[in-house]
């Protein structure tokens, strides 16, 4: 046993004992099973209960900015109005349930008190600005689309006492509203019944509430996927494949191209993953890279195999190897195109 081995064995033994001690001294998990059930449902409603006071509610976003997918939030600046008949004043008890950061919240009524309209109904309008939370699903990145939602719910009255109705005729999006890097697909307003599944410990607390939900649907432009994501990767893959056109005996150049392409692909993937939150699943673009990596490694393998066979080969045998290299190049290129197409279709 040499000096290096004599110095490694005690360290390895100490590390093993440390790991065993750590696992042996770790507290055991409780034997009580975890309760994984969830409570609460959202059900679309077409007709509010007959006993409920109906409140017509409308939305008009004028600006959406600071869309942050890493924190699943966005800022919205919008006008919200209510029109109703009855004794309950819904403007005093409404709440934006997906609004966060109370310190930066702005919810100011245009008038101090609701005003009476000529038809006998009451009307109140708000200027609302704040950060809203919106869980984003990034499985289709960079061809993903999302709903930016503003959700209103009454804090005191159950659905049998107060029900929202979306003012679809007057609601909409400002002509000046733009989100750089995104395209608008449309908007949708709907009313839901939120059943919490609990009375929060109060025997007389209602558990079902009316919810008004306004969703703005956005998507990334196709050009972002084609020119900023796929084009650099296609160039990298082509650079790796071109290495197979070189003489098999030039192992240095034949290895330099795919190795450089492999490093470039890794940095390209890291470039877009740094802009995304930590995810426990592969996004669409990750699957494209899972096609590119084996292809580049296949080019490396072919370059090494061809070099090993070319050291004692004749000129005619070298020419045959180059013909095989060209076939391998076109075959791998075809596999990349077909693989990316299948992944895109099946996403």
Residue windows where pLDDT falls under 50 for at least 5 positions:
1-12, 18-23
Q: Please, what is the oligomeric state? A: single chain
CATH topology of the largest domain: Acetylcholine Binding Protein, Chain: A
Proportion in β-strands: 25-35%
How would the blueprint of this fold be written?
Elements: H1 3-25, E1 41-44, E2 53-68, E3 73-84, E4 94-96, E5 99-100, E6 106-109, E7 115-116, E8 122-133, E9 145-154, E10 162-166, E11 183-195, E12 208-219, H2 222-242, H3 251-273, H4 284-310, H5 315-346
Parallel strand pairs: 2-10
Antiparallel strand pairs: 1-11, 2-3, 3-8, 4-9, 5-8, 6-8, 7-8, 9-12, 11-12
Describe this structure as you would to a colleague.
The chain is α+β, with helices and mostly antiparallel strands and 347 residues long. It has two domains: 41-219, Distorted Sandwich (Acetylcholine Binding Protein, Chain: A), CATH 2.70.170.10; 223-346, Neurotransmitter-gated ion-channel transmembrane domain (Methane Monooxygenase Hydroxylase, Chain G, domain 1). It has helices at 3-25, 222-242, 251-273, 284-310, 315-346, and strands spanning 41-44, 53-68, 73-84, 94-96, 99-100, 106-109, 115-116, 122-133, 145-154, 162-166, 183-195, 208-219. Strands 2, 3, 5, 6, 7, 8 and 10 form a seven-stranded mixed β-sheet that branches. The chain has a five-stranded antiparallel β-sheet with strand order 1-11-12-9-4, with no helix packed on it. Mean pLDDT is 87; it is low at 1-12 and 18-23.
